[in-house]
Design goal:
By secondary structure, this protein is of the alpha/beta class. It has 19 helices and 20 strands.
Length: 531
């Protein structure tokens, strides 16, 4: 018997048909994967099933009853979910965020919580114990009272899974749960989901929307492949893997592992005599009294593409954020064309020609594509004609955005959101573009397209720095790469060589070894004598 049955779901945004008759059936205690290219309708289907978007047609039933149409009623019915874009309370700690997921079964009420009755205090203590337990089970690697702002993106993902599980759901919908996680962390998530499905006292059905195809095929009982808002095929992983229509729609020319081919001509080196656009000299930065970045040196020249790789929590995001002005640099120098950026605000740095595309994309979900682009030009003093010329250039570079100019940004697919984030940054005509984990949530075909876009940007003499864990798509395009560990660069050199060192570092420090210990010869290769 199916726990969830959806038939003929249809949703349109303006003239764009996001769902066009999608079918989905999920059984009791089943792990079910949904795959498909960006824009196929996967996240839209999740939003319909959880009441965030009303379907234009079709039916959906849960546990034999019509599916409720509002999010809080869906949660009360026993459906939990995570979101593709990080959905956290930035002012709370990790454990407080997870505690919020227990609202479905908490009983103290608003008044009891305000006056701190004995029952409310006991319930809060129980919520905290349960939340801390779930954080441990999902592999959370920080103290539970850590402020969310001090956590790397991968820990946000684990925290959101723990919060969804706090609601004791019968059905758990996970939208890109492994995005931003290292292979070792993905392994932990997979083991957790298998254990949850086997829990006889509280059986759980799980639906995964994922671009990590090997993870989906190794974990799921059944998989549904979708494209253009329709179901292509539902079946076992073996049936999906061998289907020609699925391969063509999802994997494109990237192959089964999604690896793009290296460019025919290696990227040209930038001469050392070219004046740098950015220099970091012994840079230090962090949060409060804690330095996350600890003495980093780097030079970036116009038209150069540099990759910063390293595992989750190595400091990559903090480095890019600090260069952009927040958090503030606590030591060393950040030089822009020879002038110090230390102490300048985010807006002052942006006006000098530096643009950051953060992990969370940085789009305004409740505004249209057009409004997002217009708002990104604040402070430039553009005339109407000047803005239209730049906007039209972005629509020419990203045709899908032009077709969706009146669509609400929060309803775009992951790939379309990344296009919009890039367009917002490029609209300001920067001299340096910083991209933080741009591959998160993107299908292989879209990653190939992203690689071509980044190469075109670099060819326009714009310097590009990409911070990535998943480096296969960008390493062939880069002139140089740096490997970061514990807030320091531990190796630098040709991108292919550094990508291999990153693989070794993840293998030995990510807990994949048979005894958890590191081979000293391999670590010597990784660190190159810098330990």
């Amino acid at each position: 018997m199916s726990l969830l049955e959806a038939t003929g779901l249809r949703v349109a945004f303006g003239g764009v048909q996001a769902l066009d008759g999608l079918d989905l059936s999920v059984g009791e205690a089943e792990i079910h994967g949904i795959i498909g290219p960006n824009g196929a309708g996967k996240t839209t289907a999740m939003n319909v099933l959880t009441g965030f978007i009303r379907a234009d047609g079709g039916t959906a039933r849960f546990a034999g009853a019509p599916l409720p149409s509002q999010p809080h009623l869906v949660a009360q019915a026993g459906i939990g979910r995570t979101f593709q874009s990080s959905a956290i309370f930035a002012d709370l700690t990790a454990v407080e965020n997870v505690m919020c997921g227990g609202h479905r079964w908490s009983r103290a009420g608003l008044f009891g919580s305000m006056v701190r009755t004995r029952a409310a205090q006991a319930e809060e203590a129980e919520l905290r114990r349960t939340a801390a337990d779930w954080l441990g089970r999902v592999g959370f690697q920080f103290p539970v009272d850590t402020p969310v702002g001090a956590l790397p993106f991968g820990e946000h993902r684990k925290m959101e899974v723990a919060r969804a599980l706090m609601g004791r759901p019968r059905l758990l919908l996970l939208d890109e749960p492994t995005a931003g996680l290292t292979p070792a962390e993905v392994h932990v998530v997979g083991d957790l989901l298998r254990a949850l499905r086997r829990d006889s006292a509280h059986p759980l059905s799980i639906v995964l929307v994922e671009h990590n195809v090997p993870f989906i095929f190794s974990l799921c009982d059944r998989v549904t492949a979708v494209d253009k808002g329709r179901t292509i095929l539902s079946g076992t992983p073996a049936e999906i893997r061998g289907n020609a229509a699925v391969i063509q729609s999802y994997l494109g020319g990237g192959g089964a592992e999604g690896h793009a081919a290296a460019p025919a001509v290696p990227p040209p080196a930038v001469a050392d005599t070219v004046p740098p656009v950015l220099e970091l000299r012994g840079m230090r930065a962090g949060y409060g009294r804690i330095d996350v970045i600890r003495g980093v040196d780097m030079t970036v020249r116009p038209g150069e593409l540099i990759v910063i790789c390293g595992r989750n929590g190595a400091g990559k995001s903090t480095l890019l954020n600090a260069v952009s002005g927040q958090p503030k640099v606590s030591g060393g120098e950040v030089l822009w064309g020879g002038a110090r950026l230390n102490g300048l605000s985010v807006s002052q740095i942006a006006r000098r020609g530096l643009a950051l595309v953060p992990q969370e994309r940085g789009i305004i979900a409740g505004q249209t594509v057009e409004s997002n682009l217009r708002l990104s030009t604040g402070g430039l003093g553009l005339s109407r004609a000047g803005y239209r010329a730049r906007r039209d250039a972005m629509f020419e570079r990203f045709p899908k955005l032009g077709a969706r100019r009146t669509q609400i940004a929060g309803t775009l697919s992951g790939g379309e959101r990344q296009m919009l984030a890039l367009a917002k940054a490029l609209l300001r005509q920067p001299r340096l573009l910083l991209l933080d984990e741009p591959s998160i949530g993107l299908a292989p075909t879209i990653l190939e397209e992203l690689g071509r876009t980044v190469e075109a940007i670099r060819a326009d003499s714009i310097a590009v720095v990409v911070a990535e864990q998943n480096v296969w798509w960008v390493a062939p395009l880069a002139q140089r790469a740096f490997l970061m560990e514990s807030g320091r660069f531990v190796a630098s050199g040709p991108a292919a060589e550094i990508a291999e060192r990153e693989r070794l570092l993840e293998s030995f420090l990510g807990g994949q070894g048979s005894d958890g210990g590191a081979d000293e010869a391999a670590l010597a290769l990784v660190y190159g004598g810098h330990r």
